[in-house]
Amino acid sequence: MASKDSLENGTCADIPDGGGSPGAADARVRFCLSEDGLKLGISRYTPPGPGGAPLTKEGLREALVRAGISLPPSEAALDKILRHIAEDKPVTGITLVRGKPCVGSRDAFLEPMGDHGRPVFPGDIVAIKRALERPEEGLSIDGRVLTPANQAQPKDLEVPRTDNVALNPSDDTVRAQVYGMAEVTPQRAVVRSLISLNENKTEARAVITATDSLDRPVTAERLARALKVLRISRPLLLENVEQALALARETGQPQQDVVLALGVPPTPGKDGWLELLIRSRDLVGTEAQGGRLDYRERGSHPSVEKGRQFARLHPPATGEEGLDLFDHPIPAASGAPLEISAGEGVTALEGGALFQAEVDGMVVVQGKTVSITDSVLVEGDVSLASGNIRVDKGSVEVRGSIQAGFVVQSAGHVVVREVVESAEVEAQGNVEVGGGILMSKGGLIRAGGHVTAQFATNARIQAGGDVVIGNEINHCLIRTPGQILAVKGKGIVQGGTLVCGKGLECNELGSPLGVATVVGVSIQTEEDQGILAERREIKKELERIDASLGCADPRVVLEKTPPEKREAVLRLLRYRMKRWARFREITQTLAEAVRKRRQEFAQAAIRVRRVAHPGVTIKIAGRTLTLTAPVERAGFRYDDQTREIVVGNI
Predict the structure, then answer these.
(1) Which of 395, 477, 403 is nearest to 430 (CA)?
(2) 367: how many CB neighbours lie within 10 A of its CB?
(3) What is the secondary structure of 183-214 as a DSSP string?
(4) Average pLDDT of 140-152?
């Protein structure tokens, strides 16, 4: 007969000898059943007395039947119990019989694999899909039916290829399809590509680390295969990649914006252009291909006599097509036509391609119109005899000088044959000074176009075009989005601060005495100010949300949230995900803008034909280079790859 053990819910039975009732000297055991009814083991063992029968497998089986246990015991457990008895080891804690546990409903989910703080390559396992489990009743050892608490219908999940991953149904592995960073949640796996292409697909850049998510070394060969997966046919730039890998191994930091491959960008056709057929002064110049100014072609604002054909309009040219990273041709844009029509004092000939002057005057191209205008002529100096000169329409020509303290303002150009002395000169067009600009007592030159002079000392000049000084620039403050040129005559620039957008060229920069001279390249833009402000606001908002939640991990937050508040917290988490997505979108947009701006900086150079002296400071794209020794025939430019100012020979 079965008897009860003193343990809670414990069931014990004596073991008979040879199928009969056990004798008093026979070995005896007591069984104990776990509280959940799923495990049964021996809680007490009494060895046989003198002449008593030892414990056997069959005896244990019969005792289990008498105890009402219908489930079979584990053969391995029977062997282990008898082995422990033979070795005088404890037999408690060995599970002899197991019930069948119930199985609760469970949705399919993804289990992440590897270190997702480092990149994965095509074919790498990023997660394993764990199959859904349907609810199933269990059976306890004492015959009770066990019902699972969760009996809801389980949900399967899809792994879309649009997330740069693919599910292998043979082993339920989720594998990366591209080189990138894996993001795995229980319901979704995504690989964010670390290879980005520019707009016309002629450049592939990537983030490179020393090792991947499985701690394997990243190599140039593996990156080349990653390009082939994207069907990029252009070769890997091996030197770039090897340098980046060496830096990644040395610093332990990811290397950003590494150029992996290059296509051939198309060459746009030359825009239509207006050729002046009249002689002009050496120091003004015309715009060359690519928007740069060719100082060799410089001249003053032109004047023309009545009846003379003074300008010809040339049509645009076709461009040369390029190849993208996939070896697909990229059509080249044809040059844009220049739309110029005859304005006041001008007659158009040859269907609008040739222009002839109807009056004497100065040639002015404003917007889409070429005109001949009369200028206000001051025969001598601008002085007490003339008073200040302010002109709302047309240009001003001063055949003498502008004396200190006087003002000349023009809606067109200002042409001064001699000097400007500490005066204020403002023109929407060019300011051309035949002599020099001397501003020991203050003053300002402000021009919408170019500023030209033979020399400038202590001058303050602001120009919308180029600043061209024939001989010397001494202790001046000059700012222009164009070029600063001092290559005629001595061509010396020393002292002061000169800021340009398209570069500076001179014969000599600084002085042997080490006079502090600052030359900077600044490309100012205001178009991204709004998006920067939005990014700052989103960052503050995310910080406030994280502070209120106490944690950025949604799973941790939900686990700590009381049930009655989970719906509100879920809404907040969804809102945070949307704001975070916008934050990343803005960051990518700004990164692209910075990349383009670096390319513009790389095109603006500081060129010194003879020597640059110690005391000169070069500033480009936030980088600063101060010379401590003379440098001859030097070109200073910003290198987009190293992001530093580099010095080369010219």
Answers:
(1) 395
(2) 9
(3) EEETTEEEEEESEEE-TTS-EEEEEE-SB-TT
(4) 88
What are the E-state strand segments in 243-328?
255-262, 273-276, 286-287, 293-294, 303-304, 309-314, 322-323
Q: How far is CA 473 from CA 296, 300, 511, 596, in A?
A: 19, 19, 12, 32
End-to-end CA, the chain = 109
Look at residue 333 and give its three-state secondary structure.
Answer: coil
Spatial separation of the C-alpha atoms in residues 196 and 178, rounded to whole Å: 11
d(CA 94, CA 582): 58
Query: Would you put residue 93 in left (φ > 0), alpha (ψ -120 to 50) or beta?
Result: left
525 pLDDT tier (thresholds 50, 70, 90): low
Would the pLDDT of 389 be above 90?
A: no
> Please, where are the H alpha helices in 421-491?
none
Cα–Cα distance for residue pair 69/15, rounded to 1 Å:
13
Which of 301, 427, 307, 271 is CA-nearest to residue 364? 301
Containing 520, the helix (H) or strand (E) segment is strand 517-521
Across the range 307-329, mean pLDDT stands at 93
Asked if pLDDT for residue 295 goes beyond 70, the answer is no
d(CA 178, CA 244) in angstroms, rounded, equals 20
pLDDT > 90: percent of the chain: 56
pTM over the 0.90 mark: no
Q: How confident is the model at residue 342 (pLDDT cuts 50, 70, 90)?
A: very high
Q: Between vectors from CA 632 to CA 631 and to CA 637, what angle results, nearest 5°? A: 70
The pLDDT tens digits of the residues spanning 3-43 come to 333 233 444 443 333 344 556 688 888 899 998 889 999 99
Are the beta carbons of 601 and 622 closer than 8 angstroms? Answer: no
Secondary element (H or E) of residue 609: strand 605-612
Q: Token pair of 37, please?
A: 């009814």
* Cβ burial, residue 139 (10 Å; 0-12/13-18/19+): middle
Q: In this predicted model, what pLDDT tens digit does every residue of 559-590 receive, in sequence order?
A: 788 888 888 888 888 888 898 989 988 888 87
